[in-house]
Amino acid sequence: MAGISVSISLVLPQDLPITIYPLPIMNFINPKTDFGFKKIFASPQHKEVLISFLNAMLYNAEPTIQDLEIIDPYAAPAITGLKDTYLDVKAKITGNTTVIIEMQVINVEAFTKRVIYNAAKTYATQLKPREGYSKLNPLIALTITDFVLFENTDKFLTHFVFKEVEENIEYYREIELVFLELPKFNKRLEEVEGLIQSWTYFIKNAPELEEIPEKFASVPEMQTAFNIANRSSLNLEELQALEKREMFFEDQRGAVIKGMQEGRQEGRQEGRQEGLIEGEIALIMRQIARRTGEIPATIQTRIQQLSSQQLDDLGEILLDFTSQQDLITWLESMSA
To answer: By the 8 A CB rule, do 264 and 279 touch?
Structure first.
């Protein structure tokens, strides 16, 4: 019997199409708002972010700071009669040195004097009653501005200490002033090099990014900073607080721009200053009315009589008001 040959053919299905899903677009909070800056750099659970940032800005990216203690920047002054001021971040670093950090987006009147005042006040209030001067520890004030502060240099990071005028002899480094001027930093992402430039680029450009740049993802502290800054990581209460601060941030900027435009139209320095003040008053009135209701004429008059510095202080603190009584109490403290 002849053998039977059987041929079997297998038909394999065509390769199934592979679907590649794009990575989700990320949305980062603005580090230039007080909420954003504190959220990113003042987290006790992620001190390594602030350590990396301060090592970059203060110590040329050398790992000088190994650990730090984040301190409540809103602590009341220890000396009666000192003016209250509000900082963004305050920390104790290596060698018992205190660092205070302030983010400023608008160049308000006498801002450079305020920087010195904050530094001197923080330095002086270290001492408790009857303590000797030997208990004083060094202080560094790091100020980040979203405007040009020093027109006579192109450097975006400047460092000041006390020195003798003619022979450049350095005084004891008890108080140091460091300034980071964001508008002077104009490098594109592909041009950014080193930790100093990386952190500067992050603060200036984070809200415009849709993902964590590869060159930053290789730095663990910056990876953490981006993850903290991701809006999707915020809870509802944080998102609401962020929205209020961003709204106030834009209102302030708009008010100042409007005031400057009105001042330029009048063509006189007095007109420019009046335009700025009127714009700030109008902004504050809207913010207070939004939070506490219609403002009586008597209170409006008292607000209009405030100095430029007092208006700036009111603009910073009014988001903490829950009633018009809070406003009245604050106004009375200004006239006391």
So the answer is: no
